[in-house]
Amino acid sequence: MLLALAGRVCPKPLGSVFAIVTRCLHTVAPIHVPVVVVGAGPTGLVLSCLLSQYGIRHMVLERSQQLTQHPQAHYINNRTMEVFRGLPGLAAKVKARSPPLQQWRSFVYCEAMAAGQLLGEVDHFPGQTTAQAPAVVIRGLLGIASQGPEALQHLMSIHFSCPALGRSLLQQQRPAMLYFVFNRQIVAVVVAHDLEQGEFVAQVPYYPPLQSPADFTPEVCRQLIADAAGWSLAQLQQPAAAAAAGAAGPGQHGFQLHSVKSWAMSAVVAEDYCAWGSRVMLAGDAAHRFPPAGGFGMNTGIQDAHNLAWKLAAALHGKANSSLLSTYQSERRPVAQANAALSISNWHEAVRVPQALGLDPQAAGLVSQLASAAPLPQGVGRWLLESALAAGRGVAASILPLRKAALQQILSSGQSLRLQFPKEDLGVVYQQGAVDREGNAASGAAESGSSSSSSSRGLPYVPSTEVGGRLPHCTLAVLGQDGQQQQLVLSLDLVTPDRLGLNMLLVCSGSAGRYFIVRHSIFRPAT
After folding, report:
1. Which of 26, 112, 293, 442 keeps 20 to 30 A from 166, CA to CA?
2. pLDDT on residue 377
3. Burial class for 64, CB neighbours closer than 10 Å (0-12, 13-18, 19+)
4. What Pfam families does this protein's entry cite (predicted)?
5. Which residue has the higher pLDDT, 313 or 402?
6. SS3 assignment for 196-231
């Protein structure tokens, strides 16, 4: 039996999993499956769907009894949408649920979301009008170490709904995916998940050990949200009828605070993706965790599942020997390492704006460490920290008019947080693993094609037929024997997850621009 750990964070995960399995074996007839997927997050569910298409019997174990209602990842990149395209109907459903591009194409920097100065705005889709289509415990129990910083920053994630705020932002023509808020009361990033329904998640930093999640009571969170919106608490919580000014329709309820969770921003990659003789494979959060800057976390996990699924299917169907499974680590771990480095670089770019205002998260963290280490009476250290944070916010608010030109320079020059990374998204090239590079010159680039240097990030994707790379997406004409076009097909649809093979394009010698599509097995016989 293979155990695929798909990265859901839970207390004593392996112990819980084995306890569940033990109870099942004692209460029902034994269930024999070749693969067990632990964790029904995005990575685990995609892996399950792909295994089903390959005809692999498996079981998915999940500790939660219901779907999470607390939004987390919210950006699906191009390569992940290509993976979804291979799962019947999924890509179309995701596209149907996506908001109009105009509502999430920008990052807005402001004093408050619905009031105050607009400090700047970055359009991440210039010229486009439509969109294109804890794991730490797990690793510890397996004896797998990780590399990278465990806590770059601590944040509280506050999930709330306020239809009136969403309507206000749309009416003021301030739609955005992210709102970076800087004022005397709060510094926060607010993620707009659905402006039309008014669903948001506010990310607010805090500094342990002097501050803790227990400080963020419902009353405190409501006030923080009002401060971020630029409204009074009474205005935020006014009845829905008054807020909507007579409007009616779905989602017209008033303000609601749904949930509050703490999390630590980290950038870690497991030293090994395979354990117990490749019978346990790590994917998703079990294998890597990144800062959210760039949106690589969930996307990298889903692409892990895509890589792992066909290898499991090939081995279990007897199309390849078990050594194929070891190539999962040699192909996917370098991608995670590159994406971790890229995410850290993105995060450093993200803090350039607050640094320009005198709000440096590292300086605030240092104040917290010094205040907590000093031999001070109980409560004094916390008072010093909060006084320093309040003073910093006050100074930043005072110098906003003086620093606006500097902020505009940062934003217009592309030195702030970015959203699109075409080369890193689509230009992954596996330099080793389940590829035969004989006679194919290596590109010399990093496996993910990414770099941590500011000048090389965000470069365009250049389609290539290099072995180990993604098959370029293009439209192909299918011609009849008479040379007339019969139908059009997409190159991506030549690679299908419902069978273990690949349609290969072969150039017909002597016929320029003519190709034959043939079936070719991509697996050697099992030995």
Report:
1. 293
2. 80
3. exposed
4. FAD_binding_3
5. 313
6. CCCEEEEEEEECCCCCCHHHCCHHHHHHHHHHHHCC
Phi/psi of residue 282, nearest 5 degrees: -95, 140
* pLDDT band at 242; cut points 50, 70, 90: very low
Q: Cα–Cα distance between 199 and 193 in angstroms, integer? A: 6
Min mean pLDDT across 47-61, 122-136, 268-282 is at: 122-136
Place of tokens 């693993």: 433
Strand order in the sheet with 35-38: 58-61, 35-38, 2-5, 280-282, 274-275
How far apart are the C-alpha atoms of 37 and 45, rounded to whole Å? 9
Token code pair at residue 171: 């009416």
CA distance 29 to 27: 7
Report whether pLDDT(317) > 70: yes
Task: Map 450-480 to HEC letters.
Answer: CCCCCCCCCCCCCCCCCCCECCCCCEEEEEC
The Cα–Cα gap between 396 and 403 comes to: 9
Q: Contact at 8 Å (CB) between 270 and 288?
A: yes
3-state secondary structure of 65: coil
* Angle, in degrees to the nearest 10, between helices 78-85 and 90-97: 130
> What is the model's pLDDT at position 518?
47
Q: Is the pLDDT of residue 508 over 70?
A: no
Distance of CA 161 to the CA centre of its chain: 22
- Collapse the DSSP code of 6 into the 3-class scheme (helix H, G, I; strand E, B; otherwise coil) and give the result: coil
Burial class (CB in 10 A: 0-12, 13-18, 19+), 301: buried
Dihedral pair phi/psi, residue 417, rounded to 5°: -60, 135
How many Cα atoms sit within 13 Å of 353 on the Cβ side? 31
Which structure tokens are listed for 439?
A: 């006679």
Distance, first Cα to last Cα, the chain: 19
Phi-psi region of 149 (alpha: psi -120 to 50; beta: other; left: phi over 0): beta
Average pLDDT, the chain: 78
Contact (Cβ atoms closer than 8 angstroms) between residue 180 and residue 108: yes
| Lowest model confidence (mean pLDDT) among 7-21, 53-67, 250-264, 454-468 | 7-21
Give the pLDDT score at 468: 84
Residue 492 token pair: 């991506």
0.85 cut: is pTM over it? Answer: no
Which helix H or strand E contains 53, and what residues bound it?
Answer: helix 42-53
The secondary element (H helix, E strand) that includes residue 161 is: strand 153-161
